[in-house]
Amino acid sequence: MRPIAIALMMGLAVATQAGAAKSDRDKFEDTLHRVAPLQGTFNTTGKSRTLCVCKTNERAGVVETLHFAGDHYIQCMVPTFNSSGDLIASTSCSDWMPVAK
């Protein structure tokens, strides 16, 4: 009886590991979010991973990812603050480049 229980436990462990394996898309999204977190992250947490600058107006922003209709869009989101220093809006710019560390 004991060998059967051990064999069942081993089979269950292998099946659990196989079910937990990440797809190629999951791996890509994990890598993407390390550099460009989801859109709205800066607005809600005040944290960012990569800075960017709009080429047209030289305003600084944060790089974020927008998921729409199954696609991934990387955007430079430029924050706007009121006179008290509170974030009131973020807008994207189409012509940007990342700021090197």
Give keywords.
101 residues, 5 strands, alpha+beta, 35% helix
Query: How far from one another are the termini?
Result: 61 Å
Mean pLDDT: 83
Shape field:
elongated
The sequence of SSEs as H and E is HHHEEEEE
**Derived structural class:** alpha+beta
**Rg (CA only):** 21 Å
Sequence stretches where pLDDT stays below 50 over 5 or more residues = 3-10
Strand order of the largest sheet: 4-3-2-1-5
Number of domains: 1
Task: Supply the number of helical segments.
Answer: 3
In words, what does this structure look like?
With 101 residues, this protein is α+β, with helices and mostly antiparallel strands. The chain has one domain. 35% of the residues lie in helices and 34% in strands. The protein has 3 helices and 5 strands; from the N terminus they run H-H-H-E-E-E-E-E. The chain has helices at 2-19, 24-35, 41-45, and strands at 51-54, 60-68, 71-81, 87-93, 96-98. It has a 5-stranded antiparallel beta sheet with strand order 4-3-2-1-5. It is elongated and about 50 Å long. The termini are far apart. The model is unreliable at 3-10 (pLDDT under 50).
